[in-house]
From TrEMBL:
GO terms for biological process: DNA-templated transcription. One of its GO terms (cellular component) is DNA-directed RNA polymerase complex. Keywords: DNA-directed RNA polymerase, Nucleus, Transcription. This is Uncharacterized protein. It comes from Haematococcus lacustris (Green alga). One of its GO terms (molecular function) is DNA binding.
């Protein structure tokens, strides 16, 4: 006698009508039936820990019947917000600005049809920082592999930004300049993030200019960035005259 392996669920009957009848009698098992059978099995033979895990997983499933009248509640809430805004004489833009006050993202332009229109550069980059951004070398790197390699070696631009240099290869010149400014701003933020939380600036030995060179940032860009993310500590200056300690906020 020889035993042959057989796959579960596969009918090996040679009679087509018999096979069809068996399939019809057995019927397809739905997902709900499998879950119910699994729960019954766990309730009967599973450990206490396994039963707790299964119960927690079932309670975490969000089902339509558990939501209740969520759509109606949301509609009532939006209607109430619109009524309050109308009573206070607020415009649509003012309502949007108020809603984004607690978010890190700036308010967006409601009538915009593209990301560039929704978030103008003036809302993403502080004016004094934007005025100090220099995009010439980055634009040159997008056109020349040699210039790109120079930026990598000199570390004038953060590596993560150079990996996205392909974003500047676009026929739309205005779009390219906008992206270049955003990328240079990102590079400056990443360069500053890599710095130590506390920066000791020796005023007699180059001061901020030396710090800017060590961070691969131009001095007029470093100062407004430090204003955003650091504050000056007087503790070290009292102990060591001529040394200014800048601490991250």
């Amino acid at each position: 006698m020889r035993m042959e392996p057989r796959l579960p669920g596969l009918n090996y009957s040679t009679d087509a009508s018999q096979a069809a009848g068996a399939e019809e009698e057995e019927g397809p098992e739905t997902r709900e039936q499998r879950l119910a059978a699994n729960k019954k099995l766990v309730d009967s033979f599973g450990s206490t820990r396994r039963r707790r895990q299964l119960t927690a997983r079932e309670e975490g499933v969000v089902r339509v019947e558990k939501l209740g009248d969520a759509a109606g509640t949301l509609s009532d809430l939006l209607t109430q917000v619109a009524s309050d805004a109308a009573a206070q004489g607020l415009t649509k833009q003012q309502v949007a600005a108020a809603a984004t006050d607690v978010r890190l993202l700036p308010p967006y332009v409601l009538d915009a049809s593209s990301p560039e229109e929704a978030y103008p550069l003036s809302t993403l980059i502080p004016p004094d920082v934007g005025a100090a951004l220099r995009i010439g070398k980055l634009l040159g790197a997008a056109e020349s592999a040699e210039s790109l390699q120079t930026l990598r070696e000199k570390k004038w631009v953060h590596e993560a930004v150079l990996d996205r240099i392909v974003l500047l290869k676009d026929p739309d010149a205005a779009q390219v300049k906008r992206r270049a400014r955003l990328l240079m701003f990102l590079s400056a933020l990443l360069q500053l993030k890599a710095a130590r939380p506390n920066l000791a600036v020796d005023l007699a030995d180059g001061g901020l200019e030396r710090l800017a060179r060590s961070l691969h940032l131009n001095n007029d860009l470093l100062e407004p960035l430090l204003t955003l993310f650091y504050h000056t500590s007087k503790t070290l200056a009292d102990v060591l005259p001529g040394i200014k300690l800048i601490k991250r906020k």
